[in-house]
Specification:
By secondary structure, the chain is α/β, with parallel strands linked by helices. The chain contains 7 helices and 9 strands. The protein is 32% helix and 28% strand. The strands form 2 sheets. It has a 6-stranded mixed β-sheet, with helices on both faces. It binds adenosine-5'-triphosphate and magnesium ion.
């Protein structure tokens, strides 16, 4: 399965004469039409890697190859909504007039559980609701590639679980490609077709998981084993 290929990606930042080597030679294949999860502790370079893949940031060295032109969109760690627009207008923000299908927008708003809040402004929403609006905005754009940077971190356990299921369904139904950043091992195990563990600016391990339609039960022995394996690789 082709997709995006990263070859020897390097990135460093300088902060007050101190050089931080964030990415130290990342070689990674991101398969098309599946969920690739980047997993690693805070500050290990996950967001930096996502921004480089999404073209928001340049690498210092290395190459990136892409087999097809993707329609890419982001869901960031924070919601980044327009405070002067209500939920409905935030969701359709960025769409051309001819792309605004009211039924589609309504169904996306329903999917993220914001039915009845279409007219609410961001400052009238909880943090989780703001983040769900941002997710709806990304979906309305009908992307072929979604970059998601810890998109569910602000959500409570139940909403998070519901959104994870929705994301799996969406990926399956629309065949989108997703690059998903998290520091939650359980979230990685629930969502990932491929899990990439990053530590010290390098890929420590990669795990391929079965892409069947079965809902995963993390209490099953294979997932417990995988979790132990990941924890070992993260040097926890
Ligand atoms: N624009 C920047 N200028 C200087 N340093 C930066 C910049 N962006 C990131 N860094 C540094 O790069 C390192 C990796 O940051 P990054 O945001 O990629 O981490 P992360 O894995 O996404 O962490 P988190 O899980 O906390 O979001 C950090 O040490 C950070 O201080
Ligand atoms: Mg980050």
């Amino acid at each position: 399965m082709a997709g995006i290929e990263l070859k020897n990606i390097q990135k460093k930042y300088s902060v007050e004469n101190r050089v931080i080597n964030v990415l130290n030679g990342i070689n990674l294949q991101i398969p098309r039409e599946s969920i690739t999860v980047i997993l690693g502790r805070s500050g290990c370079g996950k967001t930096t890697l996502l921004r480089i893949v999404g073209g928001l940031e340049d690498a210092d060295a290395g190459e990136m190859e892409c087999d097809v032109e993707h329609k890419t969109t982001f869901v960031f760690q924070e919601s980044r909504l327009m405070p002067w627009l209500n939920v409905w207008d935030n969701v359709k923000f960025g769409l051309k007039k001819q792309e605004c299908d009211k039924m589609v927008i309504q169904s996306i708003i329903d999917t993220v559980g914001l039915h009845g809040f279409e007219k609410a402004y961001p400052n009238q929403l909880s943090g989780g609701m703001q983040q769900r609006t941002a997710i709806a905005r990304a979906l309305a754009y009908n992307p072929s590639f979604i970059m998601m940077d810890e998109p569910f971190a602000a959500l409570d356990y139940f909403t998070r679980e519901q959104m994870q299921k929705e994301l799996i369904r969406l990926q399956r139904d629309r065949g989108v490609s997703i690059l998903f950043v998290t520091h939650s091992i359980d979230e990685a195990l629930l969502l990932g077709h491929k899990i990439v563990v990053i530590e010290g600016g390098q890929i420590k391990a990669e795990f391929m998981l079965k892409a069947d339609n079965k809902e995963r039960n993390l209490l099953e022995p294979e997932f417990i084993e995988l979790k132990k394996n990941i924890i070992e690789r993260l040097d926890l």
